[in-house]
Fold this sequence. Notes:
By secondary structure, this protein is mostly helical. The protein has 21 helices and two strands.
Amino acid sequence: MAKNNNNNNIFQLLQHGFDPLTKTKSIPNEEANETNTKILHLSQKEPQVANQKDKLGCTPLHYACSTNASLEVVSALLNAWPDAAKQTTKFNSTPLHYACTNNASLEVVSALLDVYPDATKVKDDSGGCLPLHRVCFGRDPKLNIVSALLHVWPDAAKETTACGNTALHFACSNKEPLEVVSALLNLYPEAVAQTNNRGHTLLHCACSGYAPLDVVSVLLVAWPDAVRQLDNHGNTPLHCACSRKAPLEIVSALLSLWPDSTKVQNNDGDTPLHRACHGRAPLDVVSALLSVWPDAVKKKNNYGHTLFYSKTSFEVTILLANTYLRDKENRCSSDLMPLEEQYFQPETPDEKMLFDCLYNLYNDKTDNPSPEEIMSFFIHFELWSGVAFVLDRHPTIVKTMDLDTKVMAD
């Protein structure tokens, strides 16, 4: 951006007090008003200042749109030089691109559109984005801005960036509300089956981008087979949801349309359950996946890793162990459990105790912890398959511990 020691420098005035991180003015209102007065006075007294460009090709109007300047300031710059709305930077960005990126008000966007409506059709050189792409990828995009841009050029909804993203891909990736997604989808319903350069459908984007349930539901109604689509890495939308700690409601919606998605392995050999455990998904999600396909607990990925290699919560680890040990064959070999020290590094005393217990059972060790201690630990955490494992190895423990025979249920 331009530098100048002159206090009246238009670029300096436009940037004064603006925090690029929060996209807000970090100065008192009185000081901000004084700065606006200086800008208005300068643009009226010396209208040629609106024609200036910095080394990147930015005009004062670009600066105004990137710093959330008031409508009064933007209008003054447009009055001084109407063609400022048509100017592009070295990256081919118009002032409208800047306004859409930085959450400008509807009034500012409308003022720019009134002067140069064709700015809606300009793609920048930073990814080939239209202003519509920018607003859908920005912070808290407003429905009224999206609607204003689409009103001028409805086909903007069909345009893709250099990465193959439509505005809908960005909206679904960016946790946008249903109103924004619906406005775009109504204009371009075919987008629901369109993939970007990574092979992501809108549903992949929504599941990766923490989209709300109502957005995911609309996409599923529009194209139920979206749950079966694989991206370039072999991920289903369920893989994406499980990787990002999606809530149970979203995971359940995906499972209801294609339960066998739990069995799909991506290019790394990971099932959705692998991704859920690796991403520390909540217990109810892991439980839902296991209820559909319990044998997922035995699957190895391409690196030879089972679910037990993931750093999950202790509650999830207990659930996995309970499911795994329910099969009597799994009590004969620990091949799928990384009980060696180089693979397992416990984070809590309970985790260490759990794996010490399993190590002793698989290796017929009877001390530190003892079978009685193992049994008490498993009962405390309701690891009933583990209790059955102890009884397999030490059947006489029922008498020595005076256990209720109900505990022996397998």
